Structure formats: structure tokens, C-alpha cells
């Protein structure tokens, strides 16, 4: 904490996912053989047809500032995608393209939250929801879940968490970090509660939409009585392995999209021109073109669950989407291994880094201090070797 800095930044936690990835990188530079299972980042290269579109955009001399809310033809491709994949109808003023879904989320918090507004976060939740909400003055209210309920909230738990100050709910399905996927029926049951509280805006983060092993993706926005107050957040980072290209987008009620456009116009302007051109090609292609990645993630999920089941003390759900496992590791709390006492999930994650040379992320960062997150967006070889090392370090 530095008193010369703003109270805003002093109050903010460092992103645990990025911090762990940085730590792993640093150790690697020191010559340590670290296997990084901390970052949710597909190990595939960008599909060739998307790369070709980017190369063409460079050759075609795309270079200038882009419209703040995205190129018109990209917004049209997003509208078509929403119709094709989600049966959602939007007009161009309801779409805002941003520098990653992370910026979309930050825009939303900044334009919707006032000081003291409560933000419901079904826990475990993606690490940045909490600090982004707090940055905008919000107070986060976690709705706990358990592995027994597949880390999903019930309508009763949702209703119990609502107060007159509740302004927003943010969740992801498929969920980072639990891999849980809400079915249409489950979402409908939650919507039945939310319709009674018209002031609550729902942020539905669907960035893992295509990495879904149930093959059924449902969106809260697809319910007629929720459409006017649900914002869908999506992007190309995960499905197209374009994490570094930084393109995210929203489909939102018109008044919210216009506000995000205004916010973005003062903070970053339009997203990168080349990446936007490539995103048009990505979104216009059939999702079947990326199914090879989804198939690989499905195989790896089986592999990692099998390998984890051979290590004592890892209790897991069966993730239905995304590319993470989120095991409960409380079995190790209070135990001393190799003269190191493990009191909590942070100790455990650090122990795995130091003793197994495997980077994971503590569950605290995701609102569940009994778990750690392991990303299996890594090669088969790395997953096998990492699980071997973890087993050796723990037995
Ligand atoms: N939401 C979730 C649930 C995520 O896991 C991530 C991780 N990148 C993001 C949003 C942000 O994605 P982007 O790379 O588009 O900023
Ligand atoms: N979303 C990824 C993760 O959860 C990337 C890191 C980040 O943006 O926090 O690991």
C-alpha cells in the first residue's frame, strides 16, 4: 500500500490468475521447470482462416482508429452470431465491441454501479468480477454453493441474497472456475425469482459458450421477461484461442450499450483494427470449425479427472464446460508435508508450486477458500507430468 497512490488502487487486489502466471514465468526465467496450469488460456494456435483474415487486414491497410463501439460489419457479424447460436435479436446500437470481455465487464460496472450498490456473485465466480465491481463502488455479496450442488445456486439462495440495494448479478455459464453449466430449466428457475425484482441487471458471461460438453448452451437473455435487463458478455479469447488479440463484446439493452460506448470513448476508444477484422471471419464461420479444440478439451477433462482420482484428498465435480477443474482440497488443511504446514488453499497452491513445480490458483481468489483451480488448457504431456509431480509431492 502506497499512500501516494489513490485509495481506489490501494484497495484493489492483484488479479490472482495473472499474478500466478507471472510468478510461474519468473521461476521459469530462473531456470525452474514449471508447468503452468494457472492461466485459462487455450494452448492451440489461432485457426489458420482467422490468421489469414488478420494478414489480409494488414495488407488492406487497416490502420486507423476504429469506431468506439466496433466496426459496423463486425457488429453485424455479432448480431448474426447471436441469432444463429442463441436465438437473440439485437440491433447495432445494442452491440459494443471492447478490448476483451474483461473491458466489457469493466464498462458495465462503471456505467451501472453507484457507491453502495450490491452486486450478487454466485460463488465460485471469476476472479475479476469482484474487484471490477468494487472499483466501481459496488459491494459484492457472495452466494455460496458447494460441490454437492455442482457449485450452482438455488432460486431460494438467490432470493435470500437480494436486498433493496441489489443492482446487479454477475455469473458465468459455463463457469470459470467450476466448469458448471446451468441448464435452461435451472436458469428459468432463477429468472422466476429475478422477474420479481425489476431493478436488478443480470450480466451473463458466456465467454465459454462453445466450450460446453453438454452441447446445450442456455442464455438468461433468451427469456422474453429477462431480455430487457440482461447483458450478454462474450468474446473470441477462449473459443478461437485468441486471448492475446483482445476482442470481447456485449449484446445489451440499448441504454446500457450506449452508456458503455460513451465510457469506452473516454477510456480506450475502439478495439484493435486488425483483431476486429479477424473476429468477423471467426464469428462468421460455423462453430463446427473449432470443434477440434472442444473435443480435445473434453478428452483432457477425462484425463485430468482420472489422474486426480488417483491422488488422495482431491474431491471434484465433473465440469460440464470451460477448461478448469476446481477440486476441494480441505483434506490437506492442518497437514504438514516436507516440513511445510498447509493451513489453507493458498498454502496448498504455493506448496504445489514449490514442491511439484506446478502452478495452480488458490480458490480464495474465486470466492471459495476450500478449493484450488487447475486449468487443463494445456498439452496432454504437461497434464500427465503435472499430475505425476503433484502425486509425488503429496504422498
Ligand atoms: N470472463 C471469464 C469468465 C473469463 O474466464 C475471462 C478470461 N479471460 C474473461 C471474462 C475475460 O476474457 P477476455 O480475454 O476476453 O478479456
Ligand atoms: N480468464 C483467464 C483465467 O481465468 C485469463 C486470466 C485473466 O484474465 O484473469 O485464467
Question: How would you describe this structure in keywords?
Answer:
single chain, alpha/beta, Aspartate Aminotransferase, domain 1, Aspartate Aminotransferase, domain 2, 3-stranded antiparallel beta sheet, binds 4'-deoxy-4'-aminopyridoxal-5'-phosphate, binds glutamic acid
Secondary-structure topology with pairs:
Blueprint: H1 7-10, H2 16-29, E1 35-36, H3 48-59, H4 72-86, E2 95-98, H5 101-112, E3 118-122, H6 127-135, E4 139-143, H7 155-161, E5 166-172, H8 184-194, E6 201-205, E7 230-235, E8 248-251, H9 254-267, H10 273-284, H11 291-309, E9 324-325, E10 335-337, E11 340-342, H12 345-356, E12 358-359, E13 361-362, E14 372-375, H13 380-394
Parallel strand pairs: 1-12, 3-4, 3-5, 5-6, 6-7
Antiparallel strand pairs: 2-8, 7-8, 9-14, 10-11, 13-14
Helix pairs in contact: 3-10, 4-10, 5-6, 5-9, 7-8, 11-13
Bound molecules: 4'-deoxy-4'-aminopyridoxal-5'-phosphate (PMP) and glutamic acid.
> Mean pLDDT across all residues, rounded?
96
Looking at CATH, which topology of the largest domain would you report? Aspartate Aminotransferase, domain 2
Write down the secondary-structure element order. Answer: HHEHHEHEHEHEHEEEHHHEEEHEEEH
Q: Whole-Å distance between the termini?
A: 39 Å
Q: Biggest sheet: strands side by side, in what order?
A: 2-8-7-6-5-3-4
Helix content: 25-40%
Name the beta content range.
5-15%
Rg value? 21 Å
